[in-house]
Design goal:
The chain has 8 helices and 2 strands.
Length: 182
């Protein structure tokens, strides 16, 4: 097993365990007026991805089903941070910076497929979440409040799946994403 594989096998179960906290932290950024609107759109699209019924890896797929959600949050944080590099709010930069830094592991893990994942994540800002567009979530306080309530409720019931820490799981994950990314 090489160093990258070991790093992934160490990180991915932690990301699954932290998914509800990470989603809640990202969602909290939607109310931060100091973050550029386009950055908040990426955040809203990524958090909304949690509700996507036809996501890259269906949530019911063994131990991989929520890993794509964790990937999307991290890649969106990286993209959003590029949009908000001068943000003065330490908490906000901390959330984006931490998840963005972890996106580097994803980039190394997926290699050439990372660019496809980033494009996919960038396009999530054009979508809708439970009948609400990303634009409505970002611009309408009442819609955003409902969305934040939904995220909080999702986080309360999220059950961290198991993760089989072996090389076969990593190969399966790469194959899934390679075949499903547009």
């Amino acid at each position: 097993m090489n160093q990258l594989q070991q790093q992934c096998l160490d990180a991915f179960p932690k990301w699954l365990a932290a998914l509800s906290d990470d989603a809640t932290a990202m969602a909290s950024l939607l109310s931060a007026e100091s973050i550029p609107v386009d950055a908040r759109r990426y955040v809203a699209g990524a958090v909304g991805y949690l509700y996507k019924s036809l996501d890259l890896i269906p949530d019911g797929v063994e131990d991989l089903g929520y890993l794509d959600d964790a990937f999307v949050l991290r890649v969106a944080a990286r993209v959003a941070l590029r949009e908000a590099p001068a943000s003065k709010e330490a908490d906000i930069r901390g959330i984006l910076a931490r998840l963005s830094a972890e996106a580097e592991v994803i980039e190394r893990f997926l290699e050439a497929d990372y660019a496809r994942l980033e494009t996919y994540v960038r396009n999530l800002k054009k979508g809708a979440v439970r009948g609400r567009t990303v634009e409505e979530i970002v611009s309408d306080p009442a819609v955003r409040s409902e969305f934040l309530r939904d995220v909080t409720n999702w986080a309360k019931v999220y059950a961290c799946p198991s993760f089989e820490s072996d090389e076969k799981t990593l190969i399966k994950l790469q194959s899934f994403l390679h075949s499903r990314l547009p």
